[in-house]
Amino acid sequence: MYSDIKSFTVKLKLFYKHVDEKKLDHFVCCKKAMETFQQCNWEEVKVKFMSIIEKLQNEFSTRFSDFYSIDFKIKLFQNPFIVDTNDVESCLQMEIIELQSDECLKTAFRDCHNLIQFYSSLCETKFSKIKYFAKKMLTIFGSTYICEQTFSLMKYRKSKYASRLTDGHLNAVLRISTSKIKPAINKLVDTIQTQKSH
Prior knowledge:
With 198 residues, the protein is mainly α. It folds into 3 domains: 2-69, no CATH class; 77-141, no CATH class; 145-180. The protein has helices spanning 2-20, 28-36, 42-63, 65-69, 71-78, 90-101, 103-111, 115-121, 128-157, 167-178, 185-191. Helix 1 (2-20) packs antiparallel against helix 3 and helix 9 packs across helix 10. The relative contact order is 0.05. This is HAT, C-terminal dimerisation domain. It comes from Cinara cedri.
């Protein structure tokens, strides 16, 4: 995901430069439109396109500023064998040196196509800090998704049409909506005592 964000950020810079130079190779529809409508004032169109790209760049840098601040940690997580140990946090330095010096682990990393599998295979006593670091990095994205899902559900549920919804009800609705536990409806129904007619 982070690689996609970084590559799109670089693409936006390229788009901005190309629009400024009237190179519309990456904007096929715009290029055709400009060729069809010769009377268009390119300077006006250029200013409009460039302002849209600028807004997109600003939006990306704002929304993903957290990722940029942990760029080195992401690189370290993706490949702990290529980082300079001087740049690593002091609490991880000794274990990174041990890791980078072990040829068997280098081979295992190269052959392994799954980072979770690689970090799980590390010895707990020898690489406890690296394993802890990897767990933290792995949980960043999962927790963000659940948080965003919860806010979306809350926005949907707490509207002007649900004005009688209390905080307690909202809490219960959000808990049910974000839980993966399936209710045992048949068991619940069986335990309810039905009212007998007189």
